[in-house]
Amino acid sequence: MTAKKLNILLVDASPGDARHTLTKLEQSGYRVKHMLVDSASAMHSALIDKDWDAVLCSYDLPDFGGLDALKLMQSAKI
């Protein structure tokens, strides 16, 4: 079986948590390319620079969480 390719933007302050998420996706048969960001400015740049299949965000980041990321995605001109 050929692995499905995914380009994932991960919004998380914890590299360990991000790695756990990536491992689960890979175990489910996906070949993942990703970028990890942890701030609004980094996420905004990533949204402009590349097309993503999915954006996965930790909901409870201390300075920039899930609702902030959702608002940024909704307002981004992509």
SSE map:
Elements: E1 4-11, H1 15-27, E2 30-37, H2 40-49, E3 54-57, H3 66-75
Parallel strand pairs: 1-2, 1-3
Overview of this protein structure:
This protein is α/β, with parallel strands linked by helices. Helices cover 42% and strands 26% of the residues. It contains three helices and three strands; from the N terminus they run βαβαβα. Strands 2-1-3 form a three-stranded parallel beta sheet. Helix 1 links the parallel strand 1 and strand 2 (30-37). Helix 2 packs parallel to helix 3. It starts with a strand and ends with a helix. The model has no long low-confidence stretch (mean pLDDT 89).
Please state the overall shape, judged from the principal axes of the Cα atoms.
globular
Low-confidence stretches: none
Cα(first) to Cα(last) distance is 33 Å
Radius of gyration: 13 Å
Computed structural class: alpha/beta
Number of helices: 3
What's the gist of this structure?
This protein is an alpha/beta fold.
Keywords for this structure?
78 residues; alpha/beta; 3 strands; 42% helix; globular
